[in-house]
User: Fold this.
Amino acid sequence: MIKPKDLHGGRFLWGAHHPHCERHRHHLIWIGHHPFCLGCTAMLVGLLLGAIWFAFFSPPSFTLAGWVLFHFFLLIPTVLQPFLQMKTFKILSRTSLGFCVASFFLTGFFSLQQPISPVLFHIFQITSFFLVYRVLSGLRSMKIDNPCAGCPHGNYPVCDWNLPRLLETTEQKEIFTNFKRADCRKPL
Assistant:
């Protein structure tokens, strides 16, 4: 059985992993004529900034408490972001998250004076990372923003907006002309 994601027009554009229709504009950043996922792009920029900060500027010598507090404060925008869905704040939040992740691992592994054996500290560090990841993911899942929900044009990829892409090839035209219009409105 053919799945919509396997069809030519059923895939998201590279780097976007969201439909690039107007209803998803707050999930995307356009670079030139190509959409990219806002969250992933901003987080990648933050990771790069964190790595550059570590490599070229001497990060301050942290005490363990200072190190934990510094990274906690970098996470505050990420905690608030599910409740503040403004595009500029989402960019700030994801960039801060990327910077936090890079700094957390680079300073923790290479410049922090560990209070216990390095192996135990790194196990603690990695475990802490995954626990915070789970908490933040759980918080984010409580406020899922799905622009396709309730869309009058149907659900991606068989919505009215994307249908022309799905009908671009002869094989796909044959598949979709056999669908009843009402079937295209049902979620996959």
